[in-house]
Amino acid sequence: MTDQTPSLDDMNARSREVFRRVVEGYLETGAPVGSRTLTRTLSEQVSAATIRNVMQDLEFLGLLDSPHVSAGRIPTQQGLRMFVDGLLEVGDLDGSDRAKIDQTMGGNSDDVATLLDRVGSALSGVTQGASLVLAPKHEAEIKHIEFVSLAADRALVVLVFADGHVENRVFTPPPGQTPSSMREAANFINALAAGRTLSELGKAIEREMKTRRQEIDTLAAELVSSGAAIWENKGESTERLIVRGRGNLLTEDDQADLARIRTLFDDLERKRDIAEFLDLTEAGDGVRIFIGSENKLFSLSGSSLVVSPYMNADRKIVGAVGVIGPTRLNYGRIVPIVDYTAQLVGKLISDRG
């Protein structure tokens, strides 16, 4: 393998076609593609020996790999990346796929969380992969906040929003909290909360803590800081990440693959990397494709992620939808599905304010 990253411009027409046919064959069947198979599909008539020489050159470039002693080749992660960036042909959204996704957008009486859950189920059903939907944070103005002690190491924060929405979040308070310090912390926060969203409140607390730290005892100050971290979704937060269809990825025979995929979903369901999932999408509009270890969130699973952000009425990215599956995903079909779903979800969020 060379140190210099190869490009399509470095290949002649024959090498490029062999490379494309190998990748397309692998994505379709999941099996290595051999030289004899290619002799029947190439546009020019060449011998199997000639094709094997081309495949060896592509393997030297780090674009193909031979998983067994057989003559068949599969694309490497680098090869898949080159194919997706330079040769992938994205089709139009299939009419039946569009209809199945559109069906989930009915039922205006449903709240956003219920609807996003249905979107996730539809997306996994249409793609036969696992779907990920990152719901937006609730950003209505705060009406009231209260802390309730549940045990020495567990407390509840009750958030009442001006639009009537109520959230209860369990968290681990700093050691030594008393009912008195909790009331004092709640009084401090409620004095700042009026007319502010959670994000705005967090920033206001930071400013106020600097100027009024001496007015609050140490325990209450620690509780305020701990509560602010919970609201910003830095720990075990509310159900913002909806995962559906994991069973679609757990039917493979290869036990090593099963173990990696289970590790992936264990990570997701502990929601350790929700922030990273949204960060993936904020580098630019539109669909992005992450293959294998390109994305640390999924590097253990050897899987690919096709993800797109969605925006609110102010054109601000507030969440994301995606599909995860094996690296041999049908990218040409999945990309328009994810793109269309993200646009629909964005419109839904905007219409509901």
From TrEMBL:
<dbReference type="InterPro" id="IPR021153">
    <property type="entry name" value="HrcA_C"/>
</dbReference>
<dbReference type="InterPro" id="IPR036388">
    <property type="entry name" value="WH-like_DNA-bd_sf"/>
</dbReference>
<dbReference type="InterPro" id="IPR029016">
    <property type="entry name" value="GAF-like_dom_sf"/>
</dbReference>
<dbReference type="Pfam" id="PF01628">
    <property type="entry name" value="HrcA"/>
</dbReference>
<dbReference type="GO" id="GO:0045892">
    <property type="term" value="P:negative regulation of DNA-templated transcription"/>
</dbReference>
<comment type="function">
    <text>Negative regulator of class I heat shock genes (grpE-dnaK-dnaJ and groELS operons). Prevents heat-shock induction of these operons.</text>
</comment>
<keyword id="KW-0346">Stress response</keyword>
<keyword id="KW-0678">Repressor</keyword>
<dbReference type="InterPro" id="IPR002571">
    <property type="entry name" value="HrcA"/>
</dbReference>
<comment type="similarity">
    <text>Belongs to the HrcA family.</text>
</comment>
<keyword id="KW-0804">Transcription</keyword>
<keyword id="KW-0805">Transcription regulation</keyword>
<dbReference type="GO" id="GO:0003677">
    <property type="term" value="F:DNA binding"/>
</dbReference>
<protein>
    <recommendedName>
        <fullName>Heat-inducible transcription repressor HrcA</fullName>
    </recommendedName>
</protein>
<dbReference type="InterPro" id="IPR023120">
    <property type="entry name" value="WHTH_transcript_rep_HrcA_IDD"/>
</dbReference>
<feature type="domain" description="Heat-inducible transcription repressor HrcA C-terminal">
    <location>
        <begin position="115"/>
        <end position="335"/>
    </location>
</feature>
<dbReference type="InterPro" id="IPR036390">
    <property type="entry name" value="WH_DNA-bd_sf"/>
</dbReference>
